[in-house]
């Protein structure tokens, strides 16, 4: 890049190495609010600039909070396991935009073909399992030894 | 001894539940047995209902207004603090839903004024501000000064030149002639616009006293405090020792207007009590999403003076925006549409708190709804731009039970913000706007019809 002089155009691009995850809100949020999980070191200004400069999203207000990860799970050695802390950002969008988190796993509509295909697939897998199970009269004992 | 003393203290703390108060149920004359009512102390819904009814009866039968207010705000719980001067996005819609207020753009038409024979100077300035609200509820903006009125609405016969010179004098004194040091950081509003507003209102009120006898009997407060506490809606408590219970949502407004005029007689109503001029915006989300925060402190209801003061009705409030809500700040972050939102939110919240507190001073509360509408006015400004608001309180019943069959809505009329002057330079005020001054004068001259 050409050497930057004060007052000149900012030609340098600084790529941040943190990322933001758009999540479904646990409690219902207003229509113009999107909820993100962001890195703990990000500030409100960082979040605003990130969205406005990289994704061209008009941001009106950003509010953040730090969610404490639970520290009362126990592993097999009875040691306490901590879930990591994370920062949550509530971003209010500008210019009257609204955002609703989409339903990522919609119910498939059951046409007769899909239904019959699902039943066919179920029967096939059952047959495979049956073949691998072995003789039921042996009571689960493997058949690679003995009579 | 410790044991009897502890028993006595516990008894004093819970003396409101004594059987003596509950056993005053009236016996029907033709029965020998006492009436069968729900228990007062059981852990049941009927008992809870009976305790609630008993509390309502205590408030209804309170000996004085002070006692009624004390009982109304007796129980302290975490409540949302509603700030009239806020930078929250779309705060005016949220505040409308909290206070069941319909917002009507433009000001209501004044009642037919006394016949002022002479044509007012500058005939183009006919009835600025007041616009005719159509039955559908959508009123024209106040800027349309050419709204033809059926009864020829003449401006009050005041000497506009004299008042204009007073206003310009106040402005020049504060911003040009007086030698002030540089304002402290973020104290620009207290440096010039604050004193200018105080001087302007004092001068105008003093010179209009002879026209409006109500102003002569009024009380002008400087930096008063206005508080109101109310319940609206219900929520389930999320965490704490009261988790899972259904509680009313509590709100408190603590407002500090710059100036306030209180009068001994009430302003006349603008529309009838049961008028329906629009819809109240319904917001399904919790108030904390605005964002609004909870705190627990004293539940205060106050209009600016105590109950015994004869000037117990409100006339006009004057609000000045702090530095945080200056116009330039919104323009810097491309939020031009939120500028008007701040004016509206301030008008609605402040006036609701003031009129509702006035109604409580007359003995009305959510279980005893108002029988006559309470009207007040407000001027919200940031030193240069002025916005005018009129509020009519028709109902105080905003709790879950009382709002169910209550068709009444509170109404707020308001204008957009317009500049009073363009710029002050070299001892001269450029671009003075007479409409704003006339609207201010009309506000100050507003009085009941008998006077």
UniProtKB/TrEMBL annotation, chain A:
<feature type="region of interest" description="Disordered">
    <location>
        <begin position="128"/>
        <end position="147"/>
    </location>
</feature>
<dbReference type="GO" id="GO:0005762">
    <property type="term" value="C:mitochondrial large ribosomal subunit"/>
</dbReference>
<dbReference type="GO" id="GO:0003735">
    <property type="term" value="F:structural constituent of ribosome"/>
</dbReference>
<keyword id="KW-0689">Ribosomal protein</keyword>
<dbReference type="InterPro" id="IPR013025">
    <property type="entry name" value="Ribosomal_uL23-like"/>
</dbReference>
<keyword id="KW-0496">Mitochondrion</keyword>
<dbReference type="Pfam" id="PF00276">
    <property type="entry name" value="Ribosomal_L23"/>
</dbReference>
<keyword id="KW-0687">Ribonucleoprotein</keyword>
<comment type="similarity">
    <text>Belongs to the universal ribosomal protein uL23 family.</text>
</comment>
<protein>
    <recommendedName>
        <fullName>Large ribosomal subunit protein uL23m</fullName>
    </recommendedName>
</protein>
<dbReference type="InterPro" id="IPR012677">
    <property type="entry name" value="Nucleotide-bd_a/b_plait_sf"/>
</dbReference>
<dbReference type="InterPro" id="IPR012678">
    <property type="entry name" value="Ribosomal_uL23/eL15/eS24_sf"/>
</dbReference>
<dbReference type="GO" id="GO:0032543">
    <property type="term" value="P:mitochondrial translation"/>
</dbReference>
<feature type="compositionally biased region" description="Basic and acidic residues">
    <location>
        <begin position="128"/>
        <end position="140"/>
    </location>
</feature>
UniProtKB/TrEMBL annotation, chain B:
<keyword id="KW-0496">Mitochondrion</keyword>
<feature type="compositionally biased region" description="Low complexity">
    <location>
        <begin position="113"/>
        <end position="153"/>
    </location>
</feature>
<dbReference type="GO" id="GO:0006412">
    <property type="term" value="P:translation"/>
</dbReference>
<dbReference type="GO" id="GO:0005762">
    <property type="term" value="C:mitochondrial large ribosomal subunit"/>
</dbReference>
<keyword id="KW-0687">Ribonucleoprotein</keyword>
<dbReference type="InterPro" id="IPR010793">
    <property type="entry name" value="Ribosomal_mL37/mL65"/>
</dbReference>
<dbReference type="GO" id="GO:0003735">
    <property type="term" value="F:structural constituent of ribosome"/>
</dbReference>
<dbReference type="InterPro" id="IPR039982">
    <property type="entry name" value="Ribosomal_mL65"/>
</dbReference>
<feature type="region of interest" description="Disordered">
    <location>
        <begin position="112"/>
        <end position="153"/>
    </location>
</feature>
<dbReference type="Pfam" id="PF07147">
    <property type="entry name" value="PDCD9"/>
</dbReference>
<protein>
    <submittedName>
        <fullName>RT30 protein</fullName>
    </submittedName>
</protein>
<keyword id="KW-0689">Ribosomal protein</keyword>
């Amino acid at each position: 890049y050409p050497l930057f002089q004060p007052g000149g155009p900012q030609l340098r691009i600084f790529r941040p190495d943190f990322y933001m995850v758009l999540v479904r809100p646990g409690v219902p949020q207003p229509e113009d609010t999107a909820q993100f999980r962001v890195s703990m070191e990000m500030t409100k200004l960082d979040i605003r600039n990130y969205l406005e400069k990289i994704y061209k999203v008009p941001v009106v207000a950003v509010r953040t909070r730090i969610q404490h990860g639970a520290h009362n799970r126990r592993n097999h050695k009875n040691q306490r396991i901590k879930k990591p802390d994370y920062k949550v950002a509530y971003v209010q969008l500008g210019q009257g935009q609204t955002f609703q988190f989409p339903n990522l796993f919609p119910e498939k509509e059951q046409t007769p073909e899909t239904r019959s295909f699902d039943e066919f697939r179920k029967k096939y897998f059952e047959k495979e399992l049956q073949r691998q199970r072995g003789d039921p009269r042996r009571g689960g004992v493997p058949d690679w030894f003995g009579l | 001894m410790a044991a009897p003393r502890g028993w006595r203290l516990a008894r004093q703390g819970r003396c409101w539940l004594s059987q003596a108060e509950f056993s005053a149920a009236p016996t029907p004359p033709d029965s020998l047995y006492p009436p069968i009512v729900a228990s007062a102390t059981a852990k049941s819904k009927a008992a809870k209902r009976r305790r609630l009814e008993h509390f309502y009866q205590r408030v209804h039968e309170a000996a004085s207004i002070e006692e009624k207010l004390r009982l109304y705000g007796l129980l302290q719980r975490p409540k949302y603090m509603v700030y009239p001067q806020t930078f929250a996005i779309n705060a005016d819609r949220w505040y409308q839903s909290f206070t069941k207020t319909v917002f009507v753009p433009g000001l209501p038409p004044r009642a037919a004024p006394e016949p002022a024979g002479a044509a007012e100077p500058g005939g183009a300035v006919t009835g600025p501000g007041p616009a005719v609200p159509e039955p559908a509820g959508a009123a024209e903006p106040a800027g349309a000064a050419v709204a033809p009125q059926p009864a020829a609405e003449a401006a009050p016969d005041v000497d506009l030149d004299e008042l204009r010179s007073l206003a310009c004098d106040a402005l020049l004194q504060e911003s040009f002639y007086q030698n002030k040091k540089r304002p402290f950081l973020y104290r620009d509003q207290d440096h010039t616009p604050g004193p200018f507003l105080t001087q302007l209102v004092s001068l105008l009120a003093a010179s209009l006293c002879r026209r409006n006898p109500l102003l002569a009997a009024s009380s002008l407060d400087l930096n008063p405090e206005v508080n109101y506490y109310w319940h609206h809606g219900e929520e389930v408590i999320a965490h704490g020792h009261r988790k899972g219970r259904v509680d009313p949502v509590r709100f408190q407004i603590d407002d500090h207007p710059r100036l306030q005029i209180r009068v001994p007689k009430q302003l006349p109503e603008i529309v009838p009590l049961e008028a329906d001029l629009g819809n109240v915006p319904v917001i399904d989300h919790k108030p904390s999403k605005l964002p609004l925060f909870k705190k627990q402190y004293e539940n205060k209801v106050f209009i600016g003076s105590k109950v015994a003061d004869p000037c117990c009705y409100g006339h006009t409030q004057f609000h000045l925006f702090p530095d945080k809500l200056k116009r330039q700040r919104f323009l810097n972050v491309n939020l031009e549409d939120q500028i008007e939102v701040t004016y509206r939110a301030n008008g609605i919240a402040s006036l609701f708190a003031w009129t509702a507190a006035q109604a409580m001073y007359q003995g009305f509360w959510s279980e005893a709804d108002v029988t006559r509408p309470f009207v007040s006015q407000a001027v919200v400004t940031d030193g240069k731009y002025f916005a005018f608001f009129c509020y009519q309180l028709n109902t105080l019943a905003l709790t879950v039970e009382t709002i169910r069959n209550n068709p009444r809505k509170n109404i707020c009329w308001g204008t957009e913000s317009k500049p009073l002057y363009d710029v002050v330079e070299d001892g001269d005020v450029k671009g003075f706007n007479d409409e704003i001054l006339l609207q201010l004068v009309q506000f100050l001259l507003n009085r009941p019809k008998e006077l």
